[in-house]
Amino acid sequence: MYAFDYQRPDAIAAAAAILSADPEAKALAGGQTLLPTLKQRLAQPTALVDLSRIPELSGICATTEGVSIGAMTRHADVAASELVRAAIPALADLAGMIGDVAVRNRGTIGGSLANDDPTADYPAAVLALNATVVTDRRSIGASDFFRGLFETALKEGEIITRVDFPKVEKAGYAKFRNPASRYAMAGVFVAKTAAEVRVAVTGAGQSGVFLWTEAGDILSSDFSVQAVSGLALDPSNLMSDLHGSAEYRAQLAKVMLKRALASITG
Amino acid sequence: MSEATTIVRVPVRLTVNGKSVSAEIDPRTLLVQFLRETLDLTGTHVGCDTSQCGACVVHLDGVAVKSCTTLAVQADGASVTTIEGLATGGKLHPMQEAFRENHGLQCGFCTPGMIMSAVDLVARFGPNLDEATIRENLDGNICRCTGYHNIVKSVAAGAAAMGSAEAPRAAE
């Protein structure tokens, strides 16, 4: 690691002030991606601003619309939360599938979303559930938040404070894990509301998480595994790497879609 | 941009295996470096250094974490338990004893992390663990020698022993 200064403010405003004053400073959430990145000297922040001692960034509460999760809430706490399980069981299930136990005890939802790894799990849930990412400055709808590989709508120094998830009628998530990294080779989150079905795919897209609109349209009129049996995902915008070709990922995404649906429809 | 020329050391104070420790450290210091190099607690191992292998697992405020992917300053004010903190009064912890009894190791490099993860597993799921639960929850700990069978046996036996060791205390 390159040297950095370490700051641990106890209020959002203080953290925002440090980050705004120094564009080379970086927020530290759980550190499960940032610390490995620093160890490989792939980044050289002047300072790390540790958000872990800001009480209002953590915790889960039920809202009239659904459930609100503080940005610094650890994956393990989301996975174990009765409130999350009561509102959106698939979201608790997803949190329990991230990384491994020790990673889930440190990693946070805000950190995952701010990083926007194209193979991370949470982006699929946020996009399919049409959640709202709330920052210290504004609210950002899921469709506006994700902008590409490791790119989000967050401005310099902007801090995610919480994520508001609306309740849905039904939701399911299925993921094919890379056995070494445990990231998704393809992960599909399906969310059904009275109005529509949204299907989000992570792990497969060249530009990160995306809505599989064709799948959503079909399922909006017929919510069943059979309805998508003839569906194919176009591989031209999917990732090809040493773990699998774009065609392989297209097939995986379809299988994960069916598994996610099967988990909902039984 | 050039590397910062002066390193501002930061104070940390934490409890390690029940003992209060404090130091002024470079903020870059990983928790595992702090344990091994500052405190000479070399039972916690660094295997991959990329958070994959789990040899560095310790308990931070009671939950398993990878100490190679945690800064020591993040543990400021917290309580850390390492493999050295499990045995009491010269007697192996039931999970350590189970690994010995069931030959749950060959080279032993992964063993400290395996045992710390196993104890964490019992804390979450209780002493009666089936094989599927053990295998699923040890997925963050890699062993390149054993093929895992004896590790799984060891964890099941250690968990049961922890359960029966707790029973008399609970009845008191």
Summarize the structure.
By secondary structure, chain A is α+β, with helices and mostly antiparallel strands. Chain A has helices spanning 12-21, 34-39, 75-80, 82-87, 89-95, 101-104, 109-115, 122-128, 142-145, 213-221, 246-265, and strands spanning 5-7, 26-28, 47-50, 60-62, 66-70, 132-135, 139-141, 146-148, 151-152, 160-166, 170-177, 184-192, 197-202, 210-211.
Walk me through what this model shows.
The complex is a heterodimer of chains A (266) and B (172). Chain A has 266 residues and is α+β, with helices and mostly antiparallel strands. Chain A is 32% helix and 23% strand. Chain A contains 11 helices and 14 strands. Chain A has helices at residues 12-21, 34-39, 75-80, 82-87, 89-95, 101-104, 109-115, 122-128, 142-145, 213-221, 246-265, and strands spanning 5-7, 26-28, 47-50, 60-62, 66-70, 132-135, 139-141, 146-148, 151-152, 160-166, 170-177, 184-192, 197-202, 210-211. In chain A, the strands form 4 sheets. A 5-stranded antiparallel beta sheet of chain A has the order 4-5-10-6-7. In chain A, strand 6 (132-135) and strand 7 form a beta hairpin. The longest helix of chain A has 20 residues, at 246-265. Chain B is globular, with a radius of gyration of 17 Å. Chain B contains 5 helices and 5 strands. In chain B, helix 2 (94-101) runs antiparallel to helix 5 and helix 3 (111-125) packs across helix 5 (149-171). Chain B has a 5-stranded mixed beta sheet with strand order 2-1-5-3-4, with helices on one face. Chain B has 172 residues and is of the alpha+beta class. Helices cover 35% and strands 15% of the residues of chain B. Chain A binds chain B through residues 1-6, 8, 24, 28, 31-32, 35-36, 38-39, 44, 46, 48, 50, 52, 76, 99-103, 105-106, 180-182, and chain B through 1, 3-4, 7-8, 10, 26-28, 30, 49-52, 54, 57, 60, 63-66, 69-71, 73-74, 76, 117, 120-121, 137, 139-141.
